[in-house]
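Input record, target 12 of the design panel.
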């Protein structure tokens, strides 16, 4: 079906800011990006028009590492809660939560988490899931909520861990294996990785089993050196650093995702660069857990693709991007650290690259261009100062991120998820009411 989308401005994700853009859309593809001064080609007179005067079209954003299951934890009180280390944060909060999750909770958290992502202009997310007492079928349930009901592109995995015993670790391996097998070739809306929690909760036997069933064309999605204890445990128990250990099992692959990587040494960074593995930075989560700061230049200087995720702390990628810049400046005491060029690389170059590696096929992520997919957000943002290709990040960070991120329309692969501020196919009020009930019942079980 042909549609025409017009707005006040468009940034194509690269170099072009277009005033009064006119996008010609045919089903899932952008046919042309014109301006209102150009004449309409033949055959478009009867196309449906979606006019958003004064609004700003951006490429749909990608969240390269998140945990949707955290959506029902907002406002939850846990007691006792007095963590002294990162591992104690996991033990006292997240591992108690994940053990209490039922498939119904997984579905609801996926639904609400994906709806919030849509409201933040996110069209693609890479999730890392855990529900040790509801492993089987959990990825299907998530896929149905996120990609089916909400309509986002999702890359899913189940985090295998030995922390809850051998039977649950085996169930996690099977969940990844059967989910990956079920993926339809090149659907473009769903993909998968083989999930692992973190090196310090996964034994050599489990890594061996994962390596055995992992097919050539898939990578792993794992937390690496998030807290300092991860490396300490690796050296004490295995006599080697985490990345060396994962490499022995062949898990450093171009389509693998290593989240965090804060406490790596030079040799580990070299190894990651050599293998082409992607790293995902999650600054707000790292600050919240007080685990340290990623040395981003040490990775980018080695041409390691460093992307950006929220680690389950919401889905506001522009807020995350703002923080990524600020924390570099603050910690290094250099006002020019974390500059626009670096931030552009994280969210608008490396995240699309990471998504392209996961979704394969011909989808070019993160750009609005003729022949590309219709993955875009229309922001309710009126620039009070001139906007052009040279100052886009000034508006994104000091305008949108610090004031109000309001996404009126969201298109994913041509499907209208949000239209003029409302979900097209979902009853938001009813879902949020059910979500509050589901969360209240989950909290009681903790
Ligand atoms: Zn994480």
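The sequence produced for target 12 reads:
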């Amino acid at each position: 079906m042909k549609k025409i989308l017009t707005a006040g401005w468009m940034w194509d994700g690269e170099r072009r800011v277009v005033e009064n853009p006119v996008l010609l859309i045919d089903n899932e593809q952008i046919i042309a990006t014109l301006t209102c001064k150009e004449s309409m080609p033949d055959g478009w007179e009867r196309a449906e028009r979606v006019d958003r005067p004064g609004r700003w079209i951006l490429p749909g954003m990608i969240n390269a590492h998140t945990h949707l299951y955290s959506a029902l934890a907002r406002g939850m009180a846990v007691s006792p809660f007095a963590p002294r280390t990162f591992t104690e944060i996991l033990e006292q909060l997240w591992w108690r939560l994940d053990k209490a999750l039922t498939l119904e909770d997984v579905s609801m958290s996926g639904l609400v988490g994906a709806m919030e992502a849509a409201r933040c202009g996110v069209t693609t997310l890479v999730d890392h899931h855990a529900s040790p007492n509801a492993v089987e079928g959990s990825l299907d349930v998530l896929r149905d909520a996120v990609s089916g009901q909400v309509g986002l592109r999702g890359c899913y995995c189940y985090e295998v861990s030995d922390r809850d015993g051998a039977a649950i670790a085996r169930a996690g391996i099977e969940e990844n294996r059967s989910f990956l097998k079920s993926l339809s070739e090149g659907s473009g809306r769903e993909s998968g990785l083989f999930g692992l929690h973190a090196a310090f909760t996964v034994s050599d036997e489990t890594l061996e089993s994962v390596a055995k069933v992992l097919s050539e064309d898939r990578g792993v999605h794992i937390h690496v050196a998030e807290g300092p204890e991860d490396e300490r445990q690796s050296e004490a128990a295995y006599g080697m650093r985490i990345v060396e250990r994962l490499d022995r099992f062949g898990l450093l692959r171009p389509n693998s995702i290593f989240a965090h990587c804060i406490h790596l040494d030079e040799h580990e960074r070299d190894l990651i660069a050599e293998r082409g593995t992607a790293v995902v930075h999650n600054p707000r989560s790292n600050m919240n857990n007080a685990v340290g700061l990623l040395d981003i230049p040490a990775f980018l200087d080695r041409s390691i693709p460093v992307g950006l995720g929220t680690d389950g702390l919401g889905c506001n990628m522009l807020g995350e991007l703002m923080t990524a810049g600020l924390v570099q400046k603050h910690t290094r005491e250099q006002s020019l650290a974390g500059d626009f060029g670096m931030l552009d690389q994280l969210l608008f170059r490396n995240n699309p690259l990471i998504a392209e590696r996961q979704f394969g096929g011909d989808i070019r992520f993160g750009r609005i261009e003729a022949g590309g997919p219709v993955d875009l957000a229309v922001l309710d943002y009126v620039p009070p100062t001139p906007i052009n290709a040279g100052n886009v990040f000034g508006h994104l960070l000091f305008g949108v991120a610090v004031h109000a991120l309001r996404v009126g329309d969201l298109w994913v692969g041509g499907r209208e998820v949000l239209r003029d501020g409302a979900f097209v196919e979902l009853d938001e009020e009813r879902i949020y009411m059910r979500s509050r009930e589901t969360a209240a019942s989950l909290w009681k079980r903790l």
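Residues 65, 67, 128, 223, 259, 311 surround zinc ion (CB under 6 Å).
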